[in-house]
Amino acid sequence: TGRWLRVRREVRALIAVEHRSELWVPAFQLDDVHEIRADVSAVTARLLSFGMSDWAAWDWFHAANTWLGGARPIDELETRPAAVQTAVDGLVQ
What we know:
mainly alpha
């Protein structure tokens, strides 16, 4: 598990945060069979490549976003993936 997690973090496919000497992997990144969701991973890679920390990226997915009319990116990702990508673009403009 440790190697799997390290590799995914190195390629920016997964957010994992340290809290009280434990490594937490936010569940929203995984599907029903505990595989990484490709839609979330694509956004995560972009956020982290812009220098955002894992904690900040986790928060970004769950915070109201003006580019999405006040909706949270995680709630819009399945139905409006292009809009979420636009919200990422707006973040770095």
